[in-house]
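Um, can you check?
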Amino acid sequence: MPRVPDEYKAQRRQQFIEAAWRCAATSGYRDMTVDDVCAEARMSKGAFYGYFEQKLDLIVALLEDDARELDAILAALGGRSITNVERLRGYTQALLERGEAPGRAQLRADLWTSMLSEKEVADRFSATVQRRRERLRNWIEAAVASGEIVEIRANAFASILLALSDGLLLHSSLQPDAFRWLNILSALDVLLAGITRQDRVA
């Protein structure tokens, strides 16, 4: 039997992940079934179980897919010739733009629920959050050192930014009509302006 190329297998697995995002956007992860995902992906359950042992493995895959996109955003901001405050602002803006996608907000809500009972999900989620916190903390420390912002505890402020983004996504999954993301972004800009050194403002 000829060997299936790794690239082809990765593409097939990604089809299930993208189908799961669409299902999560309409029914939520908890109510979503393997049958739903297979139907959306137009592939068989046999194919599904070739990539995932159980439904829990799928939420871990969604978590990793989401984390890769966030890591790419952070890497892109880190590689640009902008100030560290602009990097922080760019991060919050990108995250809030993602909040407009109902599947992402619903998955975040389901993740918090799953973490109460599934240690594997909690461990994976914790690792991605820690990676993001470290990147934000480094930007904050650099901003303090260069005099861009006032003296502030970097790890604490990074944790606040992470909690704000997760909290907003969770609340938006409960009351999507109550959120105007552009207004929230404007409010966060005011918060960032509040810690910016006024003698550094052009």
DSSP finds nine helices and no strands in the chain. The mean pLDDT is 83.
